[in-house]
Structure formats: structure tokens, C-alpha cells
Amino acid sequence: MIVAVASGKGGTGKTTVAVNLALSVTSADSLFLDCDVEEPNAALFLHPTLDYREEVGILVPQVDEAKCTACGRCAEVCQFNAIAVVGQKVLVFPELCHGCGSCTINCPECAITEALNVTGVLESGQANTIRFWQGIMDVGQAMAVPIIHQLKERALGGLPPDGLAIIDVSPGAACPVVEAVNGADFCLMVTEPTPFGLHDLRIAVEVIRDELHIPVGVVINRDGVGDTGVDEYCTAEGVPMLMRIPLDRRIAEAYSEGVPMVETLPEYRVKFKQLYRQITGHTGRNIMEE
Amino acid sequence: MRIAISARALDINAPFDPRFGRGANFVFVDTESGEWEAYPNAAISASGGAGVQAAQFVVEHGAQAVVSGNFGPNAFATLKAAGMRMFIASEGTVQQLVDRFKAGELQEVDAATRAVGLRHSRGGKR
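ok -> C-alpha cells follow
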């Protein structure tokens, strides 16, 4: 089973919920994927011992000038203007390339081969019983999707049919979120009970539930601040409210020291197990060994 | 010489458009005969790489020199590969810039330039 943890608004507690859920659900084969490749931070709380590293990126065209007739077909099919033909010369702009392969497929002379343009790395390691994975995009790169795609392909390839994978998603509701959430059995939406949290939650629910057809449930973090807008929205939209984490100085202090709340406040381990039971109730699947 | 000038309208008397990749139109002028023709810039709606697309467009339409307000790194590389000469200007009509070009008053550039007072985007999509 794959559980994604998304939010819409940034800084609401996605990583907090994902990490504490992973630590509370004891399954021998559980995977944790930090898919927030622009700024992965779950490792700060899970402290994995990394043992695997792989460079990833996108495949960009390389043109064999001996075979190229400068017919211009590659530039014509490129939707991103990443390859240009002027006179008898072909120019490739790797930073514009999305790695779709259209130029390679369409070249009538088979003059194009593809080479990896490295845009980031995948890392993996063990954190107690959890197999940890993260993607890290290089500074200056703009496309997170190919890195997330390769991260999921590598990590989820090792997920047994009865295994659990928890995916920490980036904020927002755009391409990287869609790529990270796609294929999940359930998506937790972590929000704060403020107009800002609600505004972005609404957009994320529209994408994840209404477009991707993935069941969602809400976790309110820092409960006790703000207003009742999120509750009213969830009631009106039929979105289940699964958990409330209060605004509590002890949680914030543990967080600031890189300590998950379930380690300093064991009562939360029970609450996160209940959260997981509710998720399995919504998906009809349960792999937890308690 | 046939020169391409980025312009706000499809006319020899149109105001100059300082944008190259995202400029509205290109007016192509034969500096000897004064004959001209104008085309809308299809690259204006490109999601990324507008400079590359516009550069190919002016090359394909036979220009030997381009006058615009700014040439980004990708547009510059593409135009340079085609052997295009690049000149920068800041204001005027297309006709006025043709006259200034013929008088040798426009500055020729041999490196990518930076827009002044324009928000500059590298393109690409997150």
C-alpha cells in the first residue's frame, strides 16, 4: 500500500506527519520516500545510514554530425525549443530539454543518440526497520518531475505486494505533486486551520481527489490556532477529518532538535496507529503488524 | 542587406519592440530597396525556448542581421551559429531604426545581452 502525504500550503507539517506515521506503523518491509526533491528534509528526523547513491537526470539528444543532414525534423517536433537547426548546424540546449525523446524517434537519419544530463541524485539507506529513499535536485535545475519519477521507480520496485510505502510530497499542486502522488492508494492532506491553509488545501484536493481520483483525508496540524474554515470545508466536501495535532510547545521543541514527536511523546504513537487504521479503513487494505 | 527588426505591429512605421524571443512581430527590411514584409512572432506563445524559436524564424526568413533590444544566451547562440549579425536599440520606429542602421549608428553585439528594465525569464517549466 502506498500512502502519500501532501498539503497544498508549505510548512504545514507534511514531513512531521509522514515521519511519525512511518515510525508508528511497524512493518518489516516499509519504505519511506522523500519526494520533495527541491528540499528533502525527512532524513533530519529519520537519521538513515546511507548506503546507495545514483546520479539521475534526463536523457538529452546528442547529434552525430556525420549522419545529420540538417533536415530540421528534430527542431520541428521539439515542443520545448531545446534543439535548433540553423543552416547546416544543429544546436542542443540541455536546460530547455524535457527528455521526451521525440527528436530521437523522429530523426530520419537515426543521427541522434541520448546521453544522461545529470540533474540530481537518488540516495537510499536504512533507518532501523525503514528503508529510506530521497531524491535531491541539483541547485539551479528547474525540473523536479524526472527525479521524482526515477526515485519512485527505483524505490517502489522493491515494494512487496503487502508492503507499505510512505511518500513525503512537496508543497503545491503542480507537476511535482502530481508525479509524487500518482499511483498512491491514499493521500493524507496536512493543513493548518487558517485561511491560508484552507486556500491551498482546496486546490490540492481538487487535483488529487477530483483529477487523480485518489481518496484523501485531512490532518489538521497546529490545531487551536486560526478559525473553523477547514472543518467547514471538510464537512461540506465530504473529506474525512482523520487527526488533529494540537499547537504544543513540546512538539515544536522536539522538532527543532530533529526528534520525531512519537519519540518524546509516546502517546502520539497510539494516535498515529489510529490514523493508519483509519487510512486502511478507507482503502480496504491493512498490512500493519501490531 | 535584409534585416529583421522586432516591432509592436506589422508595419514599417510600427514602434520598435525591445523583446526578441517574446517580441510581437518581426519586420524584415531590404536596406537597399526599402522593401519590407512583416510577420507575427509565433514564438511569443512558446512555453519555453522562445528565443531559440524566434532565432530560427528570422534565419529561415533570410535575415542577415537582427535589431532588437536584448538577446538572451540561447537566442544569441542560435543566431551566432547562423552567422547572424546582432544589433541593439532601445526605441524608435522600424523605419527610424533602418535609417540609423544604414547610418552605422546601432551598436553591434558579440555576446548575449541583459535586458534593462525588463523582467527576464530563462524559460523552462517547473
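Chain A touches chain B at residues 75, 79-82, 84-87, 89, 91, 93, 95-96, 98, 142-144, 174-176 (CB under 8 Å).
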